[in-house]
Amino acid sequence: MSQSTLLETAQPIAVGMGQIRVAHGPAVLGAVLGSCVGVALFAPRLRIGALGHIVLPDSKGQPASPGKFADTAIPAMLHELQALGVHPSGLVAKIVGGACMFAMSGPLQIGAANIEAAVRILGNAGIAVAARDVGGTKGRRVRLDCTTGMLEIEIVGCPPQQL
Question: What pLDDT, on the 0 to 100 scale, is given for residue 157?
Fold first, then answer.
């Protein structure tokens, strides 16, 4: 399925590692995140949502799927949304994930690097992060409701929460 296809279905749509999906309400976009970061963008007026499942912070010029890296995924998401008539100033951004899955300290904290990159790149695009649930040591299951923009988060052993 093309990344630029506007999905319109009531069935949950999985967003795999390195993927970007854009959908119109009543669609629900979902992902399972560990150290990866989910960037959710929502246009309330048009009821269009986008979810990027970002694996790494920086492409360093590597050719790959644009959804894999924060520095290519977020601009690709904005481009797809703009093609659908969504202006960045009308977007609500939420980020989730970026867990430290292996309880290690040191320079290889991919989750923390993914969070920092996502926040920085959104900020450079003039988009403030309205809500976030990031870090920790446990993975998350997330679902973006493209009708309401509500982001539901489930962490094992914790009650579900909504952003």
Answer: 82
* Residue (of 159, 160, 117, 123) closest to 142 by Cα position: 160
- How many angstroms separate the first and last alpha carbons of the chain? 28
Structure token pair of residue 87: 């202006």
Are the CB atoms for 19 and 73 separated by under 8 Å? no
pTM above threshold 0.85: yes
Phi then psi for residue 151, to 5 deg, are -110, 115
The set of catalytic residues is: 36
| 90's tokens | 């009308």
CA–CA distance from 95 to each of 2, 5, 20, 36, 91 (Å)?
23, 22, 14, 11, 13
Q: Quick one: which H or E segment has residue 81?
A: helix 70-83
